Amino acid sequence: MRTDSLAADSLAAGSLPAGSLPAGSLPAALPAREHLPAALPAAPGPTRPPLLDVVVPVHNEERDLGPCVTRLRRHLDRTFPYSFRITVADNASTDSTPQVARELEADSPQIRYVRLEQKGRGRALRTVWAASDAPVLAYMDVDLSTDLNALLPLVAPLISGHSDLAIGSRLARSSRVVRGPKREFISRAYNLILRGSLQARFSDAQCGFKAIRRDVAQVLLPLVEDTGWFFDTEMLVVAERAGLRIHEVPVDWVDDPDSTVHLVRTATDDLKGVWRVGRALAVGALPLDRLTRPFGDDPRDRQLAGVPRGLARQLVGFCAVGALSTLAYLLLYSAFRTFTGSQLANALALLVSAVANTAANRRLTFGVRGRDRAVRHQAQGLVVFAIGLALTSGSLAALDTAAADPAHSTELAVLIAANLAATVLRFLLLRAWVFPDQRTAYEQRTAYEQQTAYEQQATCDQQPPYEQRTACDQQPPYGTNHPHDPRNPR
After folding, report:
1. Is pLDDT above 70 for 29?
2. Sheet of strand 136-140: strand arrangement
3. Mean pLDDT, to the nearest integer, of 402-424?
4. How far apart are CA 169 and CA 175, in angstroms?
5. Closest by Cα among 200, 185, 257 to 230
6. Taking the CA atoms of the chain, what radius of gyration do you get in angstroms?
7. Among 75-84, 133-142, 198-207, 452-461, which stretch is predicted with the lowest mean pLDDT?
8. In this structure, what are the phi and psi dihedrals at residue 300, rounded to the nearest 5 degrees?
9. How does DSSP assign 46-69, residue by residue?
10. CA dist 439 to 35, 88, 98, 116, 433, Å?
């Protein structure tokens, strides 16, 4: 039984709580995706980690554990072209599951057993994945409800460097699923809730058939708090919001009639998790910038000739926020105009829309998350608002001078023209004055990481053995003494 890993011991013992990691242990951004080396050892050894680590979480599965793990190992021996390991993660079983797992570990060097004294599928996956040395991590339910022929298509995009995570989907068009109407309804209703509340775009959050690259897991797992059944959903939502690529594989799936999952309790816990994650995303409590890929990996980040980096994306975000703000402003002005004069109605409408506009641009256009300096940014936004107020108020004053009693439609037309001029000025002030450090820090960090990645890759390319290459992959993207390293105290 393997319990000697520091990460596994810390997590299992509760000294390292879910959703946390020691400060300064994470890079500011993920390295660019790369194809894992093709020349791999035939089998893992003491110094040769496997390419794939498949985790099978179990709790009181003495009857199914032996046949299912044996079937999985034989399938991988026969069809998987890379080295692999199967890890049985025991969630505090009280039957003879530990004895069965130890016998499996003794019979095959490709099987290992990890014992946890606390229950929770999420806790088991976090513990084993955090301690694993395999570049690709996966898990599946012990009942093997998913057809194993989908395993290689699941991990292939991660091996090639195309995707960050991969999931099996029972709700894809080409999936073939056998299960009762009750579970079918619950599954579809749950995923519909995720789409409506968290804007999730993946089709199946709870299929027990997923994989992730280790470099992604090292940064993603500390952001996931749940230790139970909601672990999968939270991990996928955070990854998707951070812009990571999730590959979906249609699966053939046969429901296990003897499943011990408590549907009502699980559904209740999942809904609580949806509320918690939605609130965290709304207030910017999750540091999603940790999962940002460096320049060169995302084609949307490529620099255009003569255009400052990030300007095109900021313009799109600012225009979208500006269009909604203008609509809100006009509606507010029309409402205030019913009981007050044009100048006061204009000032009130601008004030309300300006606060919302600054908050939206702060988060969506310039990518600032969290509450740090939020009050300062709002104060600067109010200064920008005052400039916009001067432009629009001056336009109304000029209109009143030119016409004694202008029509309401004429007022709106003048205000639209004045707001267009104020919008251009607002963007320039926000970019150059309110949020300048966000753009500059991103450009400096990105450029440095790109240069450092090239230098490290050139060094690692001279290390042909797989184990040496693995050691190179574990190097941080930059030294802790660099001024742009977030681990370097400022």
Report:
1. no
2. 111-116, 84-91, 52-58, 136-140, 209-213, 165-169, 246-250
3. 82
4. 7
5. 200
6. 27
7. 452-461
8. -70, -15
9. TTB--SEEEEEEESS-TTTHHHHH
10. 30, 46, 54, 45, 11
Please give the model's pTM, rounded to 2 decimal places: 0.61
Q: What is the pLDDT of residues 249-258, one digit of tens each?
A: 999 999 877 6
pLDDT score of 276: 92
Amino acid type, 149: N
The DSSP 8-state label assigned to residue 223 in this structure reads G
**Percentage of residues in the chain having pLDDT higher than 70:** 75
Residue 219, class by beta-carbon neighbours within 10 Å (0-12 exposed, 13-18 middle, 19+ buried)? buried
Question: What one-character-per-residue DSSP string does 245-310 give?
Answer: -EEEEE-EEE--TT----HHHHHHHHHHHHHHHHHHHHHT-S-GGGGPPPTTTSGGGPPPTTS-TT
Res. 477: pLDDT tops 70: no
The residue written with tokens 């046949």 in the block is 67
Length of the chain: 490
DSSP 221: G
Encoded amino acid at 435, one letter: F
